[in-house]
Amino acid sequence: MLIKHLTDEEIQLYALNDQGCETKIIEHIKLCSECKARIEEYQLLFTGIKQQPEPSFAFDLSALVLAQLPSSRALRSRNSLAVYLLVFIGIVLISSLLYVFRDYMISIFAGIASLVIYLILITMLTVLVALCFDMYKNYQKKMGALDFY
Amino acid sequence: MNYNTGTNLTDRQLVDRVLSGDTNAFGSVVKNTERMVAQIVFKMIPTPEDRKDLAQDIYLKVFKKLGSFKFGSKLSTWIAQIGYNTCLDYLRKKKFVLPGNIYEEAETAYDMTDMISNKFPGSSEMEAYNFMLQKDLSVILKTEIEKLSPVYKMMITLYHNEELSYDEIGQITGMPPGTVKSYLFRARKTLKDSLQLNYKKEDLC
Hints:
Distance between the termini of chain A: 55 Å
Structural class of chain B: mainly alpha
Helix content of chain B: over 70%
Largest interface: A-B, 35 and 45 residues
Oligomer: heterodimer
Distance between the termini of chain B: 44 Å
Number of helices of chain B: 10
Number of strands of chain A: 0
């Protein structure tokens, strides 16, 4: 059996769940009226906390929130449409330019060795992917900040 | 505690419905979790006029982020986490008590017992509690809970009223379960000491 009085943590643990305590603690409580009294204080406190009335909103939260949802969904779909439209315009523009200047482009690359062309293409693609990745990361970071503040 | 009392749908079914455009399903999400969000908002936000805006703000964030919910926890826990973060941001902006100050309060609480015994020798702690029973414990307790820091209040409510585990409170607050346990010990002790101190004050008058 413990000779010293129980710590406040041990008292709280016993008051919360007397089944999960060590045998020496249980034995001490059986014989120590001071610790028993401290347990009763906490048990009284816990009962009091449980009996506290539940707070509730004095308005219909669900209705208030739902009234604001359609606009945000519509905005999201409008934003998606704008992104798709911009990508489409970009592809069309680049394809048109390539088509119009195709003879000039072929003449530029005609004098260069195929190995150099591959090297240029790989470098360009690597830089492009890195730039896109960086832009996407920045976008996510900004959206996260907008959502939380 | 089961929060899906309003509908028989699981978290996954509700989320799937909302993501497929069924806004009424989001209404069910709000109804199922409103009680816990109210507990967090009421315990953390002292100004009643700001609670309405914050509650709406929390659910609008939930709606925006619902697509990123990975079912790593219960939906109610995830929503409570957003609620807690939103309230914390509000408190930071308004410069209310933050978790960083919590230790200072706890240290004060530990000294309180010594202070009581020095000021009022010979009085038993059970006397204080019996007196409080006669004076309507519920009302006194409510006043004393209100005096705690927002994070202490919220943790006590989530543990004792909402019956959440240390792990679940840890998920909501972003703290390790051990830290939650330690905060809760301190919060309960602060509350108990504060109750005893108040009884003595009244007794002297």
